[in-house]
Amino acid sequence: MELLHSGKVRDVYADGDDLILVASDRVSVYDVVLPTPIPDKGKILTRLSLWWFEQLADVVPNHVISATDVPEEWAGRAVRCQRLTMLPVEWIARGYLAGLGLKEYQKQGTVSGVELPEGLVEASKLPEPIFTPTTKATEGHDEFITFADVVEEIGQETADRLRTVTLDVYKRGAEIAAERGIIIADTKLEFGRAADGTLILADEVLTSDSSRFWPADDWQPGRPQHAFDKQFVRDWSSTVTDWDRTPPGPEIPDEIVEATRARYIEVYERITGKTWEA
Questions:
Q1: Statement: residue 140 has pLDDT above 80
Q2: Based on the number of CB atoms within 10 Å of its own CB, is 65 exposed (0-12), middle (13-18) or buried (19 or more)?
Q3: Chain-wide mean pLDDT for the chain?
Q4: Residue 33 pairs with which residues in a beta bridge?
Q5: Residue 134 half-sphere exposure, CB side, CA atoms within 13 Å?
Q6: Are 263 and 232 spatial neighbours (Cβ–Cβ below 8 Å)?
Q7: CA 67 remoteness from chain centre
Q8: Band of the pLDDT at 138, cuts 50, 70, 90?
C-alpha cells in the first residue's frame, strides 16, 4: 500500500480503489504533535467513530466500507473507506461557548459572523446550536470564516446542505449523549464528495479529538469544565511555561498520559454503553 498522507493523528494509505484510514496514538495540541503517545487512543477514536457512524446513518451517508477488512497490524485502529474529494472547510457546530469560539465572542460578540446575545460566559449554553465554519489550514492555524465565505468557496447549494447536515449531526449526537449524562459542547466534522457527487461524512465523528465532552452533572457556566476530551491535554500544556507552542512539543508526564487515556475510555463507555476492551 502507498502512504498518501500522514496527518497529526491519522495516516492515509491507498489500497486499490479504497483508502485505509489509520488512527495513531499521537496527540496534538495547538497544531503541534506531542512526542508522547496516549496508549489505545487510536483504537478508542476508531471504535467511537464507528459507533456514531451507525447512529447517524439515517442523517448522512458516511465513508466506511469495512472496519475488519484492514491489514492485521492495524486491526482495531483502521477503517477501509471510500476515496472522496474532500471539501476545504472545517464544519463546526456549537451548542455551548468554549475554546476559540469563546475567545472570538469575547472580542466581537460573534462567532463566524453569527451574532450571539450579550452577557454569555465560558460554557454558556447557546440559545440554539450554531454553525461556525473555519478554514482547513495545511500550515498554521484554522481561522474562522463566515457562511458567506463558505458559499463563495463551494457554492450556495452545497453550503446550505452541509450547514443543515452539520447541525443535524450535532443535534442528534447531543441528544443521544445527553441521555447518557454527557454534554457535547461542540464538534468538528469533515465532508467529501464521492465520484457520483454524493456528499459523504468522512474522517472521524463525535470523538474526544473532534468534540468537547463534559459531564452534565458537573456543568457550571463561568468556569472551565471537566473535560473528557483533548482539552485536558491542552490545559496541561498551558502549564509548561517554557513551551512557546511551536515544535517540538513537551513530553507528557506519565500521570497526564494515564489520566487522558482514562477520560477517553470513560466517555467511550458512557456514550456507547459498552465496556472498553483493548
A1: no
A2: middle
A3: 96
A4: 28
A5: 20
A6: yes
A7: 19
A8: low
Strand order in the sheet with 18-23: 2-6, 10-15, 18-23, 78-81, 64-66
Here the cell at position 244 is: 512557546
How big is the chain by its Cα radius of gyration, in Å? 18
Q: What is the pLDDT of residue 197?
A: 96
Q: What is the mean pLDDT of residues 136-151?
A: 83
3-state SS, the chain, equals: CEEEEECCCEEEEEECCEEEEEECCCCEECCEECCCCCCCHHHHHHHHHHHHHHHCCCCCCECEEECCCCCHHHCCCEEEECCCEECCEEEEEEEECCHHHHHHHHHHCEECCEECCCCCCCCCEEEEEEECCEECCCCCCCCECCHHHHHHHHCHHHHHHHHHHHHHHHHHHHHHHHCCCEEEEEEEEEEEECCCCCEEEECCCCCCCCEEEEEHHHCCCCCCCCCCCCHHHHHHHCCCCCCCCCCCCCCCCHHHHHHHHHHHHHHHHHHHCCCCCC
The pLDDT tens digits for 81-133 are 999 999 999 999 999 999 999 999 999 999 999 999 999 999 999 999 999 99
Write out the three cell numbers for 173.
Answer: 449526537
